[in-house]
Design goal:
Blueprint lengths: L1 H27 L4 H16 L4 H18 L1 H8 L15 E9 L4 E6 L2 E7 L10 E8 L2 E6 L4
Parallel strand pairs: 3-5
Antiparallel strand pairs: 1-2, 1-4, 2-3, 4-5
Helix pairs in contact: 1-2, 2-3
Length: 152
């Protein structure tokens, strides 16, 4: 009788965990708690066949960590395919024209990108002459951090 009660409570515990983790995943859509829900589902199956709770918990932890470590990055790549970058992220990799010589030491430099003038700094400390085409490597505040385009 006591064994049935423990078995039932373990199954119920893992079922509640699965539901809570899935609801959490649906609320955040961050592909984080889904892996723990999978671990809890497998632990629930182990509980249903009578495995001891320490084994259930160990399997839950191992499955959750392994799936998050190895499957999450592939899933994120798959789901982010074709996603259009917006705002500042969309500027990275674009080309701009230097309108004022870029000199990091003198804190000088400007470039035009998409019709807007930006303060610009070089990735390295090398100067970049006016009129040069540069590639945006990152954005730091209101500054474009650029590198001179290499002509192949």
């Amino acid at each position: 009788m006591m064994l049935q009660w423990i078995l039932l409570n373990s199954v119920q515990f893992w079922l509640i965990m699965v539901v809570v983790l899935l609801v959490s995943e649906l609320a955040t859509m961050g592909l984080t708690t889904i892996w723990f829900a999978l671990g809890a589902l497998i632990a629930m199956a182990l509980a249903a066949v009578g495995s001891p709770f320490p084994v259930q918990f160990l399997v839950f932890a191992v499955v959750s960590v392994l799936t998050m470590a190895f499957v999450r990055s592939a899933a994120l790549r798959h789901f982010n395919q074709g996603r259009t970058k917006t705002n500042v992220d969309g500027l990275i990799g674009q080309k701009a024209i230097v309108t004022q010589k870029i000199n990091n030491v003198k804190a000088e430099g400007q470039a035009v990108l998409n019709g807007m003038e930006w303060t610009a700094r070089s990735v390295s400390d090398s100067e970049i002459e006016e009129g040069a085409v540069v590639v945006v490597k990152r954005v730091s505040g209101v500054k474009l951090i650029v590198e001179k385009e290499e002509i192949a």
